[in-house]
């Protein structure tokens, strides 16, 4: 056993997710794979098992404290990196139709291998978000799009909202002090067809503050978005 399963179970329960014994075993396996692979590949700076439990696993599962996906919901984890929040979300809800997207092939190979090792199923998609966001196979096809620690909210919204179907939800998973980002992003979110409906702030068991920004897709995104990444970065909406 790598992780303190009781610590994970308690943290998840506080955030509204009950984990079965089988799920806790999968999380233990995930921690082991993450720690071992991290020795040869830079996946995460968080290396201690208790920190992994709180800062990666519980933090990822916090999404379910803000939104409960319907059975079989189409979910996109944009900028998944080492598989967060996607893999923890899938362990707790294996019924999800999950896509994990990232532009770094090496990390995605680890993610795909890990999903298979855990006996789970997900689409692992190596591409740039601004390209996939124009692709009719992915554009406005998702019930839920989530992204964790990727970019400032005004920039992130241009990458994420084109994927969300009208009536669906985009959840930006942020650390503390999200109010400034929200203020800067309101115009961009409106332009992209979204509306902020809730901001949920909570604390992890290590005292770390987190904020979930819940955005509803109320109208279609103009086909001119997302723009090329250079434009998004240089001239944010």
Main attributes?
237 residues, alpha/beta, seven-stranded mixed β-sheet, globular
Structural commentary:
This protein has 237 residues and is an alpha/beta fold. It contains nine helices and seven strands. The chain has helices at 5-14, 21-38, 49-61, 86-92, 105-117, 129-132, 153-160, 179-191, 229-234; strands at residues 74-78, 97-102, 123-126, 142-148, 164-174, 194-203, 209-217. Strands 3-2-1-4-5-7-6 form a seven-stranded mixed beta sheet, with helices on both faces. Strand 1, helix 4 (86-92) and strand 2 (97-102) form a beta-alpha-beta unit. Helix 1 (5-14) packs parallel to helix 3. The chain is globular.
Beginning-to-end CA distance, first to last residue: 47 Å
What share of residues is helical?
25-40%
| Low-pLDDT segments, ≥5 res | none
Estimated radius of gyration: 17 Å
Task: Estimate the mean pLDDT confidence.
Answer: 95
Number of helices: 9
Largest sheet: 7 strands, mixed
Class from helix and strand fractions: alpha/beta
Strand order of the largest sheet: 3-2-1-4-5-7-6
Task: List the quaternary state of the chains.
Answer: single chain
């Amino acid at each position: 056993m790598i992780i303190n399963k009781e610590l994970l179970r308690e943290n998840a329960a506080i955030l509204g997710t009950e984990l079965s014994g089988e799920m806790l075993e999968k999380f233990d396996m995930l921690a082991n794979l993450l720690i071992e692979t991290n020795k040869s590949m830079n996946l995460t700076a968080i290396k201690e098992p208790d920190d992994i439990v709180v800062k990666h696993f519980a933090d990822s599962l916090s999404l379910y404290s803000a939104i409960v996906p319907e059975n079989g919901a189409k979910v996109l984890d944009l900028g998944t990196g080492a598989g967060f929040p996607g893999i923890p979300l899938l362990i707790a809800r294996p019924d999800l139709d999950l896509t994990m997207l990232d532009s770094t092939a090496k990390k995605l190979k680890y993610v795909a291998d890990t999903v298979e090792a855990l006996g789970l199923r997900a689409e692992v998609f190596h591409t740039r978000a601004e390209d996939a966001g124009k692709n009719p196979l992915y554009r406005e096809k998702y019930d839920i799009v989530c992204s964790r620690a990727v970019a400032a909210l005004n920039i992130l919204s241009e990458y994420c909202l084109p994927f969300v179907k009208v009536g669906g939800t985009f959840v930006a998973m942020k650390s503390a002090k999200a109010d400034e980002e929200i203020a800067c992003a309101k115009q961009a979110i409106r332009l992209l067809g979204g509306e902020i409906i809730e901001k949920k702030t909570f604390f992890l068991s290590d005292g770390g503050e987190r904020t979930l920004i819940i955005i509803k897709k109320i109208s279609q995104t103009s086909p001119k978005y997302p723009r090329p990444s250079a434009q998004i970065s240089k001239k944010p909406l």
